[in-house]
């Protein structure tokens, strides 16, 4: 049986002891990522200050599910308003990532359509430096060029591109 050995705001670490082993796991708080489509089929990216990383980087709208009483869908809408200044008329749950290994990073990906302007103050402050709409082809090229170094982002962009090319993207 797993027993928590550390609980932080975003990470919980557990240990599980067996007859001849000790297994450790790190659980990240569940989060959402929003792939927002403009009317002309482009995807919104935000360039965000990442003080902890000492740089800025391009990414999808995203956030932790740490707001009491909000469903993941509601968190996705909140983050879209806070980080990009839009609300989605249609939000589609597209993909879930929930590895059952040593590092558990539960992420729910949403596709956002029918965007309407609606800004909400970002509790993280003015961390978004720029919002840009890019084509799926440009996004794919940026992955190939190594711009997206976070493995999950790169694999999600490749999945998005593959479904778009096959005509199966919802």
* Low-confidence segments: none
Number of strands: 11
Which structural category do the helix and sheet elements fall into? alpha+beta
- Describe the largest sheet: 4 strands, mixed
Order of helices and strands: EEEEEEEHEEEEHH
Radius of gyration: 17 Å
The CATH architecture designation is Alpha-Beta Complex
Name of the CATH homologous superfamily: Nucleoside Triphosphate Pyrophosphohydrolase
Measured distance between first and last alpha carbons: 40 Å
> How many domains make up the coordinates?
1
For the largest sheet, list the strands in their spatial order: 1-2-3-9
Number of helices: 3
Oligomer: single chain
- Could you report the average pLDDT, rounded to the nearest whole number? 92
State the CATH class. Alpha Beta
What share of the residues does DSSP label as strand, in percent?
35-45%
Backbone shape: globular
The CATH topology is Nucleoside Triphosphate Pyrophosphohydrolase
Helical fraction = 10-25%
């Amino acid at each position: 049986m797993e027993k928590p050995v550390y609980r932080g705001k975003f990470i919980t670490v557990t240990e599980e002891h067996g007859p001849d082993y000790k297994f450790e796991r790190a659980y990240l708080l569940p989060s959402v990522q929003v792939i927002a489509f403009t009317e002309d089929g482009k995807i919104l990216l935000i360039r965000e200050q990442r003080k902890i990383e000492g740089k800025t980087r391009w990414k999808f709208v995203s956030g932790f599910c740490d707001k009491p009483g909000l469903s993941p869908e509601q968190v996705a809408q909140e983050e879209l308003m806070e980080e990009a200044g839009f609300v989605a008329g249609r939000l589609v749950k597209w993909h879930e990532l929930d590895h059952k290994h040593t590092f558990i990073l539960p992420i729910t990906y949403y596709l956002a359509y029918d965007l309407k302007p609606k800004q909400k103050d970002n509790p993280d402050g003015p961390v978004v430096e720029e919002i840009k709409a890019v084509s799926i082809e440009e996004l794919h090229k940026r992955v190939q060029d190594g711009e997206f170094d976070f493995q999950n982002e790169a694999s999600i962009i490749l999945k998005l591109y593959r479904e778009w090319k096959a005509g199966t993207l919802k």
